[in-house]
Amino acid sequence: MKTESGVISRPCFDPPSKEFVLAKPVQRESYDEKIIYELEKQGRLIITRKRNGYKLFAIKAKGKWKIYTDGFNEIFCVDHIKQELEKLKLPNKTWLAGEGIVDIKDSDDFSRVAGILKSGKERALRIQKEIGFVKLMVFGVIFWENKCRISDPYSEQLELIKKMLGKKQLKHLLPVTVLDLTFDEAKKKVAEEKKINSKSWEGLVLYDRNFVSSYRLDGKDPKRPTGCYKWKPIYEDDFIVRELAMNEKDKIVKEVLLCQIDPVTRQEFSCGKFGLFSAEKRNWLATAGLPLVIQLEFEDRSESGKLINARIGEIGFRNDKKPENCIAPKNFEIIKNPR
Questions:
Q1: Fewest CB atoms within 10 Å of the CB: 74, 136, 199, 314?
Q2: Alpha helix positions (H), the chain
Q3: CA-to-CA dists, residue 17 to 9, 59, 66, 73, 247, angstroms
Q4: Cα end-to-end span (Å), the chain
């Protein structure tokens, strides 16, 4: 298999190379949805459900399975997953890519997954007994019997995953969910599920059925390849800026500190920081009077209120809105103590 650099090479299996980096999907802001509709028109679109978990690698080498995080730290608290993998009798030198999730009534809780995977073995087991065991949702086959499979069309990877897991009685292993819907129907499904439970459906991962991925072995991120696209709903809201974070060396505005008003307590709480500004806008911020109101678009927000993948909205800074009107949505569950 040729890596992105064009060099024919493959990673080690035991221990795996920490310099291995798998290509990521193209972010929503980096593509035009016309591409997706064209794939659909040509009958080449594969729509899968995106889960909100931890990317994990399951690797079988020397007859044993080991589970690693994306950064190739071995995980020792998921023996239940390894036991099910062993039952499958898969060939040696198999490398699977998946998402580690805690599925609670068909919804995901990223913070709980993170808490489990970062805990010691005994504590992680205790937590899983209380809230549910980590599951591995397999979305890719990187190697199969020492043969590179990400150089094969994604449709063939899916067939292999289906053959591997489809009819098995498994509790902790599951295949990626492929949606038999149109793109518009899938987007509507995500929106409907989000209204019921904000943690339910994070979004979609969209594939050209002929998509071929890539990787690098030097620790650098591969170029995001065409043919694999991440889609999440885009939210928009207004936030209060009461403080500026300055770069002391250059004496310019580095970031703004965001907050909103809790709809229940009516107290302000932190929504994190934002710093994607032009040089011109940074100069303006340094002399602008505070507080300000800024309109931002974002893909999601954590339970504490911090924005995920935020970018400035079409209006930007709003002179027409007062800080006291920046109230968080009522369906947003704030668990951080109000500031």
A1: 314
A2: 33-41, 79-87, 110-117, 121-131, 154-165, 183-196, 279-287
A3: 12, 12, 14, 11, 37
A4: 53
Could you report the per-residue pLDDT of 167-194, keeping only the tens digit for each? 778 999 999 999 999 999 999 999 888 7
DSSP state letter for 88: T
Q: What's the CA dihedral at 114, 339, 297, 213 to 10 degrees?
A: -20
Average pLDDT, the chain: 87
Q: Residues in the chain, how many?
A: 339
Q: Which residues of the chain have pLDDT under 50?
A: 1-8, 336-339
Secondary structure of the chain: what % helix, strand, coil (to 5)?
25, 35, 40
Identify whether the C-beta of residue 308 lies closer than 8 Å to the C-beta of residue 235. no
* Residue 9 CB partners (closer than 8 Å, separation 6+): 1, 3, 217
| Strand duo 235-247 + 252-261: pairing | antiparallel
Cβ atoms of 141 and 154 closer than 8 Å: no
Ordered DSSP codes for 255-285: EEEEEEE-TTT--EEEEEEE----HHHHHHH
Contact 199, 101 (CB under 8 A): no
233: preceding bond cis by omega (within 30 degrees): no
Q: Which of 304, 314, 308 is nearest to 339 (CA)?
A: 304
